[in-house]
Amino acid sequence: MRHATEHADVPTAELDTALRGGPFHVALRAAIAARGLPLQRVQHHLSRRGVKVGVTSLSYWQQGARRPQRPESLRAVRALEEILRLPEESLIRLLAESGERTPGGRAAGRSYRSVNEASGVLDRLTADLGRSVDGGLQTLGHHERVRLGARGELASREAHHIVRAHRDGVDRFVAVHRGDPGCDPGRMTVHALENCRTGRVRLDQDTGVLVAELLFGAALRSGDTFSFRYGVEDGTAGTSHEYLHRFGSPGGQYALQVRFDPAALPVRCHRFTQHSPAAPRGGGQELTVTGPHHCVHLVEPRIRPGVVGIAWDWGPTAPPGP
Length: 322
Known about the structure:
By secondary structure, this protein is of the alpha+beta class. The chain has helices at residues 13-21, 24-35, 39-48, 55-63, 71-83, 90-97, 112-128; strands at 137-148, 154-165, 170-178, 189-194, 197-204, 209-220, 225-233, 242-247, 253-259, 268-274, 282-287, 295-300, 306-313. The strands form three sheets. A six-stranded mixed beta sheet has the order 4-7-2-1-9-12, with no helix packed on it. A four-stranded antiparallel beta sheet has the order 8-13-10-11, with no helix packed on it.
């Protein structure tokens, strides 16, 4: 176990400030500078501990161009805390709790804190509708199509649900949309596309959460199945870096497709899973953007509680945003 006094020989004000407030890449860069280690030496120390990380990855991490997400990368971050003589969990905490930013100042993804805040808001908004998110329905199939615009923004998404009622009298579904950081849910539009119509809509400006009733027009009996589609026009935030879906209960098949604008194509994409928003990301698999459709997709044959998503890296020439 490391002792608190072990980081006393890196007393720079920049490092102390970065460790308290982040973001991660600034804290990492300050810690490496305070120790006076070139990245090749940092890599050597990691290798001696059985952790393999390239110098290029380390450089990307400290620049904020990429962030550690895979289990092996998170092992490296914990090892870096020891190598750089930092308090335990100091860098991991910044990854988990702070909203990471790219060099352009745009959010790289939803932080653990923001997901928890959004969950609390979601409970409040659905309670205001007199509903629960489950709503008496079990998911048999859930297919989502997400479209990004020429600025790299989350322009829209479309969802097709096949559900089964597990109690009598179910006549609606509560749709949830979480915009990217900086979005404006007041300017989003919900469209009922097939076998439903839009009912009441509630939103929270601070967390970017929007919920909407989709009315079936008739009450289902227990055991009845139903198929419907809806869409959300967004496009109100800056450059997007990932799309994820959080499931609270098991269900049937889930498929996610992300379509990029030809004017804004990422340099790489990968899928990921998490048991919970606080857990390390796993299940990483590189995805290839297919042309001429400019799409990537994933398929989960059986939904399990947790998070499933796709993330992408814009590289050094990210779209300009709004």
